[in-house]
Each structure stands twice: as C-alpha cells, then as structure tokens.
Amino acid sequence: xxxxxxxxxxxxxxxxxxxxxxxxxxxxxxxxxxxxxxxxxxxxxxxxxxxxxxxxxxxxxxxxxxxxxxxxxxxxxxxxxxxxxxxxxxxxxxxxxxxxxxxxxxxxxxxxxxxxxxxxxxxxxxxxxxxxxxxxxxxxxxxxxxxxxxxxxxxxxxxxxxxxxxxxxxxxxxxxxxxxxxxxxxxxxxxxxxxxxxxxxxxxxxxxxxxxxxxxxxxxxxxxxxxxxxxxxxxxxxxxxxxxxxxxxxxxxxxxxxxxxxxxxxxxxxxxxxxxxxxxxxxxxxxxxxxxxxxxxxxxxxxxxxxxxxxxxxxxxxxxxxxxxxxxxxxxxxxxxxxxxxxxxxxxxxxxxxxxxxxxxxxxxxxxxxxxxxxxxxxxxxxxxxxxxxxxxx
Length: 394
Description:
It is built from 13 helices and six strands. It is mostly helical.
C-alpha cells in the first residue's frame, strides 16, 4: 500500500500541474487571440493601397513580439509538465521492483518438457473459450499433439450456451436444462427456474401481443416450481397487469427486467452445467494466473525481508515456500497432509507414508526414524521395515 500511495501522490501532482498549465495556457491564448483580432480589425479598415503609419507599424511589431513571448512561456510550462510526468515513471520503478527472478523459478522455461506443458495449457484455454482456430494454430506451430480431450469440447459447447444467454438467446440453454432436468432437481438447483423466468419475461416484453403465449408458457413450465418459488411466480403473474405500457421500468416489477438477471443466469448456467458434466469451470491457465496474482504481493514482501537477511532465493531446494499463502476456498481442491513429526506439509519429494501399523508420517520423518533396516512407529510400539511402508495419495 505504501508503494501505491507514493505513486498516487506523484499522479496527483501531475493532475494538479496539468490543470494549472491548462488554465494559464487557455487564458494566454484567449488574450493573444483578442489582441490579434483588434489588430486585424484595424488593418481591415485601412485602404488596400494605403501605407501603414510608422507609429502603427511599431505598435504592430510590439504586439507580435509580446505574442511570441507569451507562446514561448506556454512552451516552457509544457516542458515543465514533461518533467513532472517522468517522476511518475521513476516512482513506479522505485517502488515496484520488476525483477521476479528471485521469487519464481525462471529456469522451468528452459526445459523443453515444461515449455510443451505451457503450450498445452495455453492451447487448452483457447479451445475452452471456443477459439479453435487460434488453438489449432498454436498446436501446429509448437508441434503439439492434437487435442482430443472430450472435456474441452464439452466446455466449449457450454461456454457458447452461456454466451448465448448473455445475448438473450435462451434456446440452447433451455434444451440443455430439459435434458438434464432430473440431475438439476437432484441438486435442488434453481437454474431451470431462472432460465424459464427469463424466457417468460422475454414474452412479456412483446407487450399485449405476447400475452397469450406468456400465459401458455407459465402453464406448461411453472407448475413444477410452484411449491418452491410461489412468491416469485406471483410476482411474474403480476407483471401481466402492466402489459399495456411501453416498458416495465416505471412499474413495481422493474427489478425483473434488469440486465443483472441475464448475467446471473449465464453465470449460474456455466457453474452448474460444468459441475453436472464433470468439467472444471476454470481453465488451468486462468487458475495459474489468478493464483499468481494472489501470491505475488506476499512473495514481493517476503523477498524484501529476505534480501535484508542476505537470503538469495525465496524458494527452497525442494521448491517449497517458507510461508503459507492462502489462495481462498475457490482454489482449494484437496486436503493437504502435514507430517505430525516434522510439522511440514507433504510434497511430491516428501509424500505421506503409511506404516505397517496404520499410522501415517512423512517420508523424511520415516527416514530419520529408521535405524538400520527397522523402523519403530513414533505413536505405537510396533516395528516394521521401510519396504513395508506404503505411499499415500491425497
């Protein structure tokens, strides 16, 4: 926050300086235009063959000289404004360090294997967004194997349906909720009602011409929702009273015709449809970028502390961070095992191990407790060999 405040102060100085220069420049230009207008009017009143008197010529020279001086002062003020603007860039460079090499293992991009994985993640994101042409170009140029993941096709279809809802085309989404109606009911979902409500409101927006169709639509689709959404359906029926008006903005039901309902419908559709078909809503690229944005401020603060203590890198030899960074519940996909002996979370290099007796400790703890070929459990008197321990996957 201190860094942001420092940059903000410099920006405020630029705005203040610019406002002052703008005001002074406008006043100076208005004055110059006024003086020149007077001179022009005086010259226009003279005959075309007449000679300008010497006194009037000297006055005209003085006017031109004053105008040039005023214009030069405007240029000087403008150059001063450039210096004030440059201080903003210097403040950003001073308070926001662009060097991320000590907080990120940059060497991962030197490996062909990891570059291929990165290209796959990017191409997968494009496929999921329905940008098949871009994704295929990336696959061809980076020599990746063609993407044949059925989940990508499923998500692309669902994403297009969600975009169609935002464009007020409910047809594809309504066909989908009809197909998966039983699954939605089992989840106690409100998605189908939200989409049916939007379809009904679209009919009402046709005015009196859509009245009969709107009533028929409620009879065909709203019976199953009457116990759960009785009050909401009563409000929808109340809208029929105002069909004669040009719109519903000046009625007690104006909140039903706001754009936010369409955004909520699209968001609910993509969320619940992905859960039902077993597809992750967020692409791997989106998750990585969002996680990095969460972690970067904490890592930058940690870097400053570790530089003072002359520590070369934020990452340990096992690619572990010395602090825990909470990414929020939306990015918590599985539980994490923490070794009860070493009090450290497990990693790929240090996985949890189940001993023969059933107790679980980390691999590092197991190796430290091993004496020869035998290992005594730290929680019970049973002994076992290292080969009898089994790796556990969380």
